[in-house]
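Checklist before submission:
- one chain only
- standard amino acids only
- sequence pasted in full

Submission:
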Amino acid sequence: MSKEQFTLALPLLDDIQNRAVYTLSVIEQIQRGRIFVNDMLNPTATFITSSGGFYCLAGQEDDDNFNKFVVRYMNQKSNHNGFFALGLFSEKWNLELNKYSIDTSKKIQRSYYRFNQDRFNEEFTDVALKFDDGFEYIILNEEISNDYREKFYPYYKMVWDTTHHFCEFGVGHFLKRNNDLISVCTSPYIGGNYAEIDIITIEGYKRQGLATKLGVAFIRECLRRQLTPNWCCDSDNIESNNLAVKLGFEKIDEYPMYWYHT
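Returned file contents:
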């Protein structure tokens, strides 16, 4: 499907909505990706891939020819940039994909959340973001973006083509200590007026409330920009699930995902 036709896939995502922000980013051409459909004139199923390796199946699940195409695509190593994560958002899709073998993958469970602004406001409206002496708090700019993408988390070179691109569309809040990044809260995907949240704190600085503070800063910026913060994570990641609830998110679903694994 050409980029000019990407919006034809949008109605097939009605039931998924915020569970796959990366698909909305691709459709809006904020971030790179490809869209395949089973019928160009009357699509009833779609397979959407993003440059960051997150993929999605949506629409009717019973088109065997299309499903076989998807499996062939998944099993062709050259289609992936070293990583993939294929999201399934219905039990029917799960049953259909169970008929096939997807190489170099394992099936995991992902938890999906919806932001509750009232809960967030009750907890954090009057909370001032203060960091102890020795910490340097930085909001996304080209210098920190380049440092982050080149040295701390190269995955962001896959999802955001350039430093300028990340700064133009993304959200990012960073904390340094002794000139080293120690905690970050950034957006790997922006689409459909949602901003996906990605939080990393290095081991020596965990359990000090840094992730919470940066998460609050991220959410406040989203609200100022009329973006809805969004959260999903592995279901067995207890820390991430607990932090989601703490920041005002409510769990809405849990679905399987084929995660790259060798």
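Reviewer check: The chain has a mean pLDDT of 96.
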